[in-house]
Amino acid sequence: MPPSPVTCRLDRWLWTVRVFKTRTLATGACRDGRVRIDDSIVKPSREVRIGEVVTVRDGLIGRVYRVVGIPASRIGAKLVPDHCEDRTPTAEIERAKAARVQQVLARERGAGRPTKRDRRQLDDLLDQL
What residue stretches are annotated with the RNA-binding S4 domain (predicted)? Predict the structure, then answer.
């Protein structure tokens, strides 16, 4: 097994630690300005080093990761904590969950009462939270 590299392209690192499903999505997020390293917007070709803090804006939530290692290739989900430390504030995660629940609970004006099926789905959703 070859030794792990010291640096890696940002879009490749985001893909290898499973922040994005495809490298194309990671590249697009970098180009759109949704990815930052140490509070500065970066291009997909930026080299990422161990110890840097990467922030990825994903809808309502801004995920914060610290680079712990640089994998040689895409890794399994169980190995991700060896290369990436999630430092997302819990308040931000709770805010995103609350927004998701609010969106589900909001009913269109004039839609009437929820049906029995709708009500059960809402109850199941609220029980999961």
Answer: 8-74
Domains and CATH numbers, the chain: 1-88 (3.10.290.10), 90-129 (no CATH)
- Residues 66-79 have pLDDT tens digits of 999 999 899 999 99
Identify the residue with better confidence: 4 or 5: 5
Supply the pTM of this predicted model. 0.74
Please state, in angstroms and as integers, the Cα–Cα distance from residue 101 to each residue in 63, 81, 93, 116, following that order. Answer: 19, 28, 13, 19
Nearest to 24 by CA among 14, 35, 33: 14
End-to-end CA, the chain = 43
Average pLDDT over residues 87-113: 79
